[in-house]
C-alpha cells in the first residue's frame, strides 16, 4: 500500500520516547493515530463479525474482543514487521512490548483511514487481522510489508 501523505507514516511509527526529547508531544507521536485507529478497528471488526454471525450478541461481542485484544493486535503487528519501522529510543523491552506493538497496529490503521478512507482501512484490518476467523479463506501472506 502506498501513502499519499507519507508524513502520516512518520507519525504512525514515532514513539513518545525520542532521543534528545524527554517526551514528545502527542501530535508528534503515534498516540493520536492510535486513538483514531482504535475506533476504526472496532468498527471494521464489528462489521465483519456482524456480517458473518448467526445473531448471538454474546458471541458477537466475544469474537470482536478476541480480535481487538492487545495479544491479537501485537501478533498482527509482528507478522507485518511493524517494529522495524518504529522510531524511538526507549529500551528494547519497551519498544517491542506487546502493548507498543498493538498500539502500532492501531496507529497504522488510523493512518490508513486518514490517508485512504474507511474502505481501505477496513480491508487492511480484514486482510491482516480477521483472516484467522474460522470459515474464512486465508488473507494476504505474512510477508506483506508497509511501504
Throw out a few tags for this protein.
single chain; 147 residues; mainly alpha; Ribonuclease iii, N-terminal Endonuclease Domain, Chain A; 0% strand
Average pLDDT taken over every residue: 81
Overall geometry: globular
Number of domains: 1
Q: How does the helix and strand content classify structurally?
A: mainly alpha
Helix content: 55-70%
CATH architecture: Orthogonal Bundle
The fold-level CATH name is: Ribonuclease iii, N-terminal Endonuclease Domain, Chain A
CATH superfamily: Ribonuclease III domain
Query: If helices are DSSP runs of H or I spanning 4 or more residues, what is the number of helices?
Result: 7
Helices and strands, in order, run as: HHHHHHH
The major β-sheet equals: none
- Count of distinct strands: 0
Amino acid at each position: 500500500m502506498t501513502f499519499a501523505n507519507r508524513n502520516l507514516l512518520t507519525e504512525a511509527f514515532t514513539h513518545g520516547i525520542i532521543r534528545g526529547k524527554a517526551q514528545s508531544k502527542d501530535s508528534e507521536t503515534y498516540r493520536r493515530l492510535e486513538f483514531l485507529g482504535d475506533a476504526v478497528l472496532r468498527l471494521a471488526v464489528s462489521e465483519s463479525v456482524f456480517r458473518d454471525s448467526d445473531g448471538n450478541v454474546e458471541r458477537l461481542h466475544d469474537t470482536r474482543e478476541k480480535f481487538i485484544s492487545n495479544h491479537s493486535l501485537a501478533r498482527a503487528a509482528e507478522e507485518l514487521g511493524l517494529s522495524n519501522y518504529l522510531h524511538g529510543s526507549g529500551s528494547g523491552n519497551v519498544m517491542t512490548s506487546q502493548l507498543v506493538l498493538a498500539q502500532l497496529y492501531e496507529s497504522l490503521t488510523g493512518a490508513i483511514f486518514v490517508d485512504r478512507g474507511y474502505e481501505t482501512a477496513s480491508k487492511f484490518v480484514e486482510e491482516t487481522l480477521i483472516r484467522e476467523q474460522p470459515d474464512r479463506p486465508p488473507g494476504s501472506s505474512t510477508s506483506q510489508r508497509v511501504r
